[in-house]
Design brief:
Strand content of chain B: 25-35%
Largest sheet of chain B: 5 strands, mixed
Radius of gyration of chain A: 21 Å
Largest interface: A-B, 15 and 13 residues
Number of helices of chain B: 1
Largest sheet of chain A: 8 strands, mixed
Helix content of chain A: 25-40%
Number of helices of chain A: 8
Structural class of chain B: mainly beta
Strand order of the largest sheet of chain B: 2-1-7-5-6
Strand content of chain A: 15-25%
Order of helices and strands of chain A: EHEEHEHEHEEHEEEEHEEEHEEEH
Number of strands of chain A: 17
Order of helices and strands of chain B: EEHEEEEE
Distance between the termini of chain A: 44 Å
Oligomer: heterodimer
Distance between the termini of chain B: 44 Å
Chain lengths: ~375, ~100
C-alpha cells in the first residue's frame, strides 16, 4: 500500500539542478511534486560545476539551443528574484557580460566564424556577441597576459553561485509544498493504473506524471518507460584559489571570481568514464594555462580542486523527450544546468505541465541523432 | 566552550615565535595552531564574508579556517605548519591583495 503522502501530481527522479528547477517550476504552477534523490553517492554534477550563466557559443549547430539559452538568460533575473523573495537565499546572479579570449590566430578566426554563423539565430533580437581586439579586452578585463590576442564579449553572459542556486531551489520547492526525499535511489519504475510508481529504499511513490532527471542515471531509468538517452561521460576539473581582493572584472570561459573573492579555474576535458578523481597532471595544465592567460594568478595559492562528470549528449545540447509508450513520462538531460535554470523553471516546467514538448522544444528530441551527422559543439 | 586555562602538555624542546608582536612558547613538533591554542589565542582572523572571528576547526588541513600570515606569506594553514624558532605570525587580514 502506498501511503497518501507518497502520492503526487508529478514525481521527479533526480534532485540536481535540472530536476529541482523543473520541480520548483511545477510547484509554482500549483502542482504537488515529490523529488526523489539518490543521495551523495550519485555523481553530483550539480555540485561540481563552474557557475557560469553563459549564452555565447551555445547552439552554434542547433539554433533552437541558441534561442533556448538566450531565453534562459532573460528569465534568470526573474528566477533569482523569486528565489530571494520566497526563500531568502540569493543565487547571487550577476550579468556584467562575459569574455572569451584567444591565444592563437586560429582560435580567433574560429570565434569570428562562429559569430558570423550565429548572428541571425535570434532574429531581430540579435546575437549579442562581438569580436574584441586586445586593446578593447584590456580595457574591459585588465590583467590579461601578453599572449592573449583578442577574444569575444557578450552582454548576455554572466555567473552565479551555483550551490546557493541549488539550495534555493530545494528550499523553494519545499516551501511551496513539494517534498524532497534524499537517499532514495529509484530501483524500479512501473505503471499501476494511471499512475507511475517509483520504488525506492524509502518506499514507493506514485504520480500521474513522471520526470526522469537523474543525469547519467537516466541511461538505465529511461528504458523502463520506453525511452533511450544517448549520454557521454566527460570529466571536468576545477581549481579554486584562496580568497583575493577583486581582480577579475568579469567572468570568462576559463576563470571567474566569486563574490567572496575565490577565483575558479576550469575548462579541462577527460574521458575517464565516471571517475571524478582529480589528476595532478590536469591540475598542473589548468594552472599553467591560467597563469599564461592571467599572469597575476601566479601569486595566489590553490586551496582546493575537484573533478566532476559532465552530462553530454552527442551534440552537447539538451535532450528532452516524452514517452510514447508511457504517455506522461518524460526524460530530461542537459549539460548546462546552471545556465538553463531560468528556462527549466519558467518555460520547461509549464510545457511539461501542459503535457507537450512542442514548438522549439521538439528540436531537443533525440531523434535528431538518428541520421548520424551530428556536430559536437561548445558546451 | 573553550577552557579558560588551557593546560599545556609539555614535551620536547621549547621553541618561541611571535604572534601579533606577542612572544609565544611552543614545543618542537607542534603545529602553529596547537601552539596558539595552548597559549589561549583562539581568534586567528576575521571571516571575509561575515567579519566574525575565526580560528581552529578541523585541525587537519581540510577546512581552511585557521588561516594566518606566517613570515610574510598570507593564508597559511596554522594546523598544517610546524612551529619554527623565530617565526613571525600575524592574523590573516582579509583577502589577499594581488600585485598587478
Amino acid at each position: 500500500m502506498i501511503p497518501n503522502e507518497n502520492f503526487a501530481d508529478t514525481i521527479i527522479v533526480g534532485g540536481g539542478l535540472l530536476g529541482s528547477a523543473v520541480a520548483w517550476g511545477l510547484t509554482r504552477l500549483g502542482q504537488k511534486v515529490i523529488v526523489l534523490d539518490e543521495g551523495d553517492v550519485a555523481l553530483r554534477a550539480s555540485r561540481g560545476n563552474f557557475g557560469l550563466v553563459w549564452v555565447s557559443g551555445k547552439g552554434e549547430f542547433l539554433p533552437p539551443y541558441a534561442r533556448w539559452s538566450r531565453l534562459s538568460s532573460e528569465l534568470w533575473p526573474q528566477l533569482a528574484e523569486e528565489l530571494i523573495e520566497q526563500t531568502g537565499i540569493s543565487p547571487v546572479y550577476q550579468k556584467p557580460g562575459g569574455v572569451m579570449f584567444s591565444l592563437t590566430e586560429e582560435d580567433l578566426a574560429r570565434k569570428r566564424e562562429q559569430i558570423g554563423r550565429m548572428k541571425d539565430y535570434n532574429g531581430p533580437k540579435g546575437y549579442g556577441a562581438r569580436m574584441m581586439d586586445k586593446a578593447e579586452l584590456d580595457e574591459m578585463l585588465p590583467g590579461l597576459g601578453p599572449d592573449v590576442l583578442g577574444g569575444t564579449y557578450s552582454p548576455h553572459d554572466g555567473h552565479c553561485n551555483p550551490l546557493f542556486l541549488l539550495r534555493g531551489l530545494h528550499a523553494g520547492l519545499q516551501k511551496a509544498g513539494g517534498c524532497y526525499v534524499s537517499d532514495a535511489p529509484a530501483t524500479k519504475i512501473e505503471k499501476e493504473g494511471s499512475s507511475f510508481v517509483v520504488s525506492t529504499s524509502h518506499g514507493r511513490y506514485a504520480g500521474a506524471k513522471l520526470i526522469l532527471a537523474a543525469g547519467h542515471g537516466n541511461r538505465w531509468l529511461a528504458p523502463q518507460v520506453g525511452l533511450e538517452v544517448p549520454l557521454i561521460a566527460e570529466k571536468g576539473e576545477i581549481l579554486v584559489t584562496e580568497r583575493a581582493r577583486p581582480l577579475l572584472t568579469m567572468p570568462t570561459h576559463l576563470l571567474r571570481q566569486t563574490g567572496e573573492g575565490t577565483i575558479m579555474i576550469g575548462d579541462s576535458h577527460e574521458h575517464t568514464g565516471y571517475s571524478t578523481r582529480s589528476r595532478s597532471t590536469v591540475i598542473a595544465d589548468l594552472a599553467r594555462y591560467a597563469v599564461h592567460c592571467f599572469p597575476a594568478l601566479a601569486q595566489l595559492r590553490l586551496v582546493r580542486s575537484w573533478g566532476a562528470v559532465r552530462i553530454l549528449t552527442p551534440d552537447g545540447c539538451p535532450v528532452y523527450q516524452q514517452s510514447e509508450l508511457c504517455p506522461g513520462a518524460f526524460s530530461i538531460n542537459c549539460h548546462s544546468g546552471v545556465t538553463l535554470a531560468g528556462a527549466h523553471a519558467l518555460a520547461l516546467a509549464p510545457a511539461i505541465a501542459e503535457g507537450a514538448l512542442s514548438g522549439e522544444l521538439d528540436a531537443f528530441h533525440p531523434r535528431r541523432f538518428a541520421n548520424g551527422t551530428v556536430k559536437s559543439a561548445a558546451h | 566552550m573553550a577552557p579558560s586555562n588551557p593546560r599545556r602538555i609539555d614535551q620536547g624542546r621549547v621553541v618561541t615565535f611571535s604572534f601579533e608582536g606577542q612572544t609565544v612558547r611552543a614545543c618542537e613538533g607542534e603545529s602553529v595552531a596547537a601552539a596558539l591554542t595552548a597559549a589561549g589565542i583562539r581568534d586567528f582572523r576575521n571571516s571575509i564574508v561575515s567579519g566574525q572571528p575565526r580560528g581552529i576547526y578541523c585541525m587537519m588541513g581540510a577546512c581552511f579556517d585557521c588561516l594566518v600570515e606566517i613570515d610574510g606569506v598570507p593564508n597559511r594553514q596554522a594546523c598544517m605548519t610546524e612551529v619554527q624558532e623565530g617565526m613571525f605570525v600575524r592574523r590573516q587580514a582579509g583577502a589577499v591583495e594581488v600585485k598587478a
